[in-house]
Amino acid sequence: MRGPTQILPTDRADEMLINMGPQHPATHGVLKVVIGLEGERVTRAVPHIGFLHRNHEKIEEARTYPQIITYTDRMDYVSGLQNELPFILAVEDLLGVEVPDRAKYLRVIFFELYRLASHLVWLGTGMLDFGAITPFLYTFRDRERILEIVEKTAGARMLPNYFTFGGVRRDVHPDFFKDVADFLDFFEKRLPDYYALVLDSPVFQARAVGVGVLPKERAIARGASGPVLRASGVAYDVRKAEPYDAYPEIEFEVPVREEGDVYARFWVRFKEMEESIKIIRQAIEKTPKVGPYKGKVPARMKVKGSRYRAVEISRGHLGAHVVGDGTDRPYRIKHRSPSFANLQLIPDLLVGARFADAIAILSSLDPVFGEVDR
Amino acid sequence: MSLLAEVWEAVRAIGQGMAAVNRRVGESAVTEFYPYQKPEIPPVSVQFLALIQNEDGSDRCVSCLACERACPSQVITIERKRNPAGKGFVLERFDLDFVNCMHCANCVEVCPVSAIVTVGDFEHAVYDVNMLKADKAFLDEIGRRAQVWYSPKFGVEIRKPDGSIEKAPPEMQPGGLAELLAGEEGA
């Protein structure tokens, strides 16, 4: 029996099938794309997923609510902390938990720190796909500083398990605000280097401008979100559309670009990093100096009802639908993950492109496989 | 675009990139002499878990089973018996399977007496996976060796050279900011 994603071998002499991945160095994680090639042109492209499937949603149904937070971390492991939030927001709504102001701002600061960390990983590995090794070495060194700041307070670097119902798990380290401010000053000086190495470089532009164009209608029809959608001219950002935590009190812009090509997707992520710096600066200023960092949560959680909440993680619209039946374990949890939806664009973008461009397009989509396969 | 202009563009691009790289040439390189110089790891960092004993050598653990219930990967196994002398329970068995442990520190979070704690002891790579199945004696040994550890209930604690245990100053506490500010206001 042939599965729905399998591709028929061709009997045409001029078409060659290539299995790109799951061990190909230019596919992020364990993506396998079967690509049909006619010379240099891609004739068809079928993504195969599921190599990292580990039954996330079913495992979570068998765990109590506080235990589940640990699992949500492991979806998008590059921006680990961000994944905890939609589930926590949904349960907080169902329980009617009040989140103190200080916790809201702390959440925003950590959220945006992870956006910076995630975009730095994307920039480094993305440029590896383009054949440039230097940015990788630089971005990972800068990211290390973010992780060190997070480790001091949250206790882990990538999967910190720091947010909890009603706020955050513990107050921040005494040096935290100073560390973050220092890092932002440092990173602001680094950004021009990245512009020079990547975005403003004519070598990069020659490979990125006009490549892998995604029309607006197609992006909406396929359910794309995040930088991929905003690069196609749709100004949709969950932080503006359905604000959560302290985002309504913070001023920031949503970078949008009309072209929808690889260059536009890179440009949007670069501008997002600048916006993140602005957001963190404002949040540090507005965070109440003292105050509780955690609201009152019932000791035994009995959640009843269903709620869907979404947040804007580094890759787009991440949602969690929690259905509780009045016991201490959820009846059902559904995660809506951005990379999974963005990956549907592969046939649209790759067919007709050159093979070398296919790798550039994949890196501009920035999928993380922990979250695609779940 | 003429050929000459294209060549000029390429040269300019390379020069631009090289300039950006050159700006970093003078930066001090960081080399860690790892086995000789151990990295400083904040005590809150979940490197390993340990059981802490009181100064007199008795278990802090009161066998309340809170950590066993809170563990998402269900790797903690506790057996207890009624305390023959007095009330409460005493530990008979405390097994922690580090093979499946996710190092989320939920057990440390819920412990009411700060018996199970996080330590910055990270050199526990072994050749045999069965070596990672820790029992109470092993966890106690790590606890005895630890000089500094963290648990949310008591914060960071330090073992002094004479064996007594005391709470670290707020500068070392991961959640010490509020405490420091409150102290400033009071003074």
Number of strands of chain B: 8
Oligomer: heterodimer
Shape estimate of chain A:
globular
Report the CATH superfamily of chain A. Answer: Cytochrome-c3 Hydrogenase, chain B
- Which stretches of chain A of 5+ consecutive residues score pLDDT under 50? none
- CATH topology (fold) name of the domain at 48-173 in chain B: Alpha-Beta Plaits
Q: Any guess at the CATH architecture of the domain at 48-173 in chain B?
A: 2-Layer Sandwich
Mind describing the biggest β-sheet of chain A? Answer: 3 strands, antiparallel
**Shape assignment of chain B:** elongated
Q: How do the strands line up in the largest sheet of chain A?
A: 1-2-3
Task: From the alpha carbons, calculate the radius of gyration of chain B and give it in angstroms.
Answer: 25 Å
Report on the structure:
The complex is a heterodimer of chains A (374) and B (187). The longest helix of chain A has 30 residues, at 101-130. In chain A, 51% of the residues are buried. Chain A has helices spanning 56-61, 65-73, 84-95, 101-130, 134-154, 176-199, 202-208, 216-221, 227-230, 238-241, 262-286, 338-343, 345-350, 355-365, 369-373, and strands spanning 16-20, 32-38, 41-48, 163-164, 167-168, 304-313, 316-325, 330-336. A three-stranded antiparallel sheet of chain A has the order 1-2-3. In chain A, strands 6-7-8 form a three-stranded antiparallel sheet. In chain A, strands 4-5 form a two-stranded antiparallel sheet. Chain A contains 15 helices and eight strands. Chain A is globular. The two termini of chain A are 25 Å apart. Chain B is an alpha+beta fold and 187 residues long. Chain B has a domain at 48-173: Alpha-Beta Plaits (2-Layer Sandwich). Chain B is 27% helix and 20% strand. Chain B has five helices and eight strands. In chain B, the strands form two sheets. A five-stranded antiparallel sheet of chain B has the order 1-4-6-7-8. Chain B is elongated and about 95 Å long.
